[in-house]
Structures are given as C-alpha cells and as structure tokens.
Write a structure and sequence with these properties.
With about 270 residues, this protein is an alpha/beta fold. It has two domains: about 150 residues, Rossmann fold (3-Layer(aba) Sandwich); about 120 residues, Rossmann fold. It is built from eleven helices and ten strands. The strands form two sheets. The chain has a six-stranded parallel sheet, with helices on both faces. It has a four-stranded parallel sheet with strand order 6-5-7-8, sandwiched between helices. Helix 3 links the parallel strand 3 and strand 4. Helix 8 crosses helix 9. The structure holds D-glutamic acid (DGL). The site of D-glutamic acid (DGL) has 17 residues, from helix 3. D-glutamic acid binds next to helix 3.
Length: about 270
C-alpha cells in the first residue's frame, strides 16, 4: 500500500486523455498533472530540446514525493523514456510499448497505421516496437503536425471545417493503404476521436496511447503492491507553465468536471 501521488506530464492538454482513464480505473489514487503549456507543441522539436524539456518537467514533478510517473506524451516517450528511466530511481511508464501491444491484439489484417507528431515518427520508436513484438506486421506512419495546435485551441469537434479538412488529408493515405487498426500515437489525438472515427469509419479500430499507458501503470502498481487503499477517493492537482485560465476551460470540458480555479501556474525555467 502506498498513498503517495502519481505524477503525470505532457506538453499541454493531451495527457488529460490519460488522466481521464486513470481517474476511472484508479479512483483511489492522487494525481499531480503538469502540462507544459508555455512550450507546447513539442512535436517538431529536436531530441536534445525534448530531453531538456522532459528533464525539467520531471524535476518539477519530483518536487513532490511521488510513487510513479506516467509520461502521458508520445513525443517524450518516443525520444526520452530510456534516458529518464536511467536517471530516476522511481517507476516511469511511457506510452509506446503498451499501445503497440494493444494494436497487435486487435488487428486482423496486420496492417497497422500510426499517427503521431513529427518527432515521434522521426524517432521510429513505434515502428521498432511493433516489429519487435510481431516481425510480420506492416506499419504505415503518418505525422500530423497541425493536430496539436488545433486541439490546444479547442478545434477538435466534429463539424469544425478546419479540423475535418486537415484530418481528411492526413488520414486518407492510411485508409487507401488499408489499415484496420490505427494507433493514436500522440496523447492529444483522443480529443479528436469523434472526428477521426467519422473519417475512418467502423472498419478501423482506434487505439489510444494515453489509455493503454494508464492500464500499464495500473498493472505496474498492482504488481509492486503500490496501490492506495480502494476505499479512498483520490484527488488531482493541475499545474501549467502558462495561463491557467486557458488550460482550465478546455480541461474542464474534456474531463467533464469543473476544474476552474484549480490549475496553478509555475515557472518551469526554475527546474
Ligand atoms: N501530446 C504529446 C504527444 O503525445 C505532445 C504533442 C506536442 O506537444 O506536439 O506527442
């Protein structure tokens, strides 16, 4: 039993897709969320910059006494996970491996599509993990650099002509290629689930990176007997590196609960 909080971070809102699942499957756990909203998007940046940002994000989170960390960011997981695991003496879960395992469990034709940020596609991490787990699988990767800025600006609803046009352009090559499973390799993308499934249709199963990594964390805590007692109700704290008000509006809508006046701004350059 361990009642210390779990740290979760992302470049911005995307990690909330993992928080939403964590609050459902690990209701008893306290969460501390950090969204690096001053520096979002991460997706086009170099490995060196991403590692620097990720180290600072983690250093901030570790100013709390945490029992584990979930990197709810595809871009950080694909580029910096191993280094962060090596440098830190607490369990750190990323999104790549659990998401790939899930995709391989659901695909029937072994044609798996993967959409993510430019940095994640460039890293080759999803492709490598899929091939390691199933050498016969075919993979088609598509970077979607406009998705994160649109989501951060609240443009993720079906019927929004801008997001639908952009999404169609990104997704059509994958659909022509014939994937039956599509990995949403960036944790911002589940916010676009309605738009994406409208374009892909019922023949394509969507696998969300945030969701799978939340389940992985649950398994890890159970395996190490680090779960908080089931009869308690966990609370969440939210921190951002830019205007808290902007984050709270979209976050409240997304988490379906009022988090107004709950997010606090911190200076990430101090970490
Ligand atoms: N949500 C993040 C990811 O999963 C970061 C996207 C970004 O900031 O570009 O990749």
């Amino acid at each position: 039993m361990d009642t210390r909080p779990i740290g979760v971070f992302d470049s911005g809102l995307g990690g909330l897709t993992a928080v939403r699942v964590l609050r459902r499957i690990l209701r008893q756990e306290d969460l501390i969320y950090f969204g690096d909203t001053a520096r979002v998007p991460y997706g086009g940046r170099s490995r060196e910059t991403l590692l620097k940002y990720a180290r600072q994000d983690l250093r901030f989170l570790r100013s709390f006494d945490l029992k584990a960390v979930l990197i709810a960011c595809g871009t950080v997981s694909t580029t910096s996970l191993e280094t962060l695991q090596r440098e830190n003496d607490l369990p750190i879960v990323g999104v790549v491996e659990p998401t790939c395992r899930r995709a391989l469990a659901v695909t029937r034709n072994r044609r798996v599509g993967m959409i993510a940020t430019l940095a994640s596609v460039r890293s080759g991490a999803y492709q490598a993990a899929l091939r390691r787990l199933d050498p016969e699988v075919s993979v088609f990767e598509q970077p979607c650099p406009l998705f994160v800025p649109l989501v951060e600006n609240g443009r993720f609803r079906p019927g929004d002509v801008v997001i639908e046009t952009v999404a169609r352009e990104y997704l059509e090559p994958l659909l022509d290629w014939g994937c039956d499973t599509l990995i949403l390799g960036c944790t911002h993308y589940p916010l676009l689930e309605d738009v994406i499934s409208k374009i892909c249709g019922p023949g394509v199963t969507l696998v969300s990176a945030g969701e799978e990594s939340a389940f992985e964390l649950k398994r890890l805590l159970a395996g190490q007997d680090r779960r908080a007692p089931e009869d308690r109700k966990g609370k969440a704290e939210f921190y951002v590196s830019d205007r808290a008000e902007d984050f709270e509006g979209v976050a409240s809508m997304f988490l379906a609960e009022d988090i107004h006046h709950m997010a606090r701004r911190i200076d990430i350059d101090q970490y």
